[in-house]
Amino acid sequence: MSQNTKNPDNCNVNVALDIIVGKWKSIILLQLMFRGTKRFGELRKLIPEITHRMLTSQLRELEENDLIKRVVYPEIPPKVEYSVTEYGQTLMPILNEMHKWGTAHQTHMAQKNGELRNSL
Amino acid sequence: MSQNTKNPDNCNVNVALDIIVGKWKSIILLQLMFRGTKRFGELRKLIPEITHRMLTSQLRELEENDLIKRVVYPEIPPKVEYSVTEYGQTLMPILNEMHKWGTAHQTHMAQKNGELRNSL
DNA sequence: CTGGATCCACGTAGATACTG
DNA sequence: CAGTATCTACGTGGATCCAG
């Protein structure tokens, strides 16, 4: 959880932040949103940098927040599928805004740093 | 910085995330946005839980990202004023979306946890 | 294949004291 | 009043091994 319940303006912003800042959560969510249901191993391939342990824990947290659904098939070998829940889809506006802003920000900072000097 | 430059869907989302997740950044931004220019000491009063050291460092990071402006008045005793830059205002859509979602999420989780049981 | 448990390294935040 | 420096404590992530 965050902190601060005394600043009405803020607290709910951090509620959202706390849920999506898991360092890998947003990328996992986006993968599942855009590429659909995926198995554990498939996610690992889609996100090569993430460790086994991290993928597990981040998926658990996302599941606890009802953002993704975990379906276990009682087979040997085990098979588990993850997908974004309907509720998880409600994060789209936030992720969209962040994507837009993040993209623009790269340009902003590039200009500030003198790169992109008028190249005409 | 984040990680991952191989997943086009994601990277720019984390660009934005990395900038606003400083644990105190969003609240500082919101205070400055809604209450206007504030001095260092005023911010401390508005956010009592933050430590002196943290306020300093978070303000510095926000400044480095062009989100806030720092104005030093060469007086004795020192006086420094912080305000949101025009560029910082572009974060409003994100903060708004997160605020809305965060608020709704509290309700969502309350229901999930069996609270709010139909009290008719 | 999926995932839990353990050990360890590192970053980040808190507390405190000091400076201009 | 505003800011810096140091020292410490803790959470979090990485690596590795074990299990169903």
Automatic annotation (TrEMBL), chains A, B:
It comes from the Bacteria. Keywords: DNA-binding, Transcription, Transcription regulation. GO terms for molecular function: DNA binding. PROSITE patterns: HTH_HXLR (PS51118). Gene3D superfamilies: Winged helix-like DNA-binding domain superfamily/Winged helix DNA-binding domain (1.10.10.10). InterPro entries: HTH_HxlR (IPR002577), WH-like_DNA-bd_sf (IPR036388), WH_DNA-bd_sf (IPR036390). Residues 11-110 form the HTH hxlR-type domain. Pfam families: HxlR (PF01638). PANTHER family: TRANSCRIPTIONAL REGULATOR, TRANSCRIPTIONAL REGULATOR, MARR FAMILY. This is Transcriptional regulator.
